[in-house]
Amino acid sequence: MRLDKFIAQQLGVSRAIAGREIRGNRVTVDGDIIKNAAFKLLPEHAVAYDGNPLSAATRATLFYA
Q1: Residue range 3-51 in CATH 3.10.290.10
Q2: Domain residue extents for the chain
């Protein structure tokens, strides 16, 4: 998944705003500042926004019979 898409989903903002935050040095991946919004995230990457860790929440799907 692209970094900008992940940030947009986690923060509930548009990808344009997520890109602005990434370019503003507010996002780190594994402790390194990433300025490229198209950076490809892997499941083992640790992402933080303003020093606060973000995690990919797993989504549960309920099926009703």
Answers
A1: yes
A2: 3-51
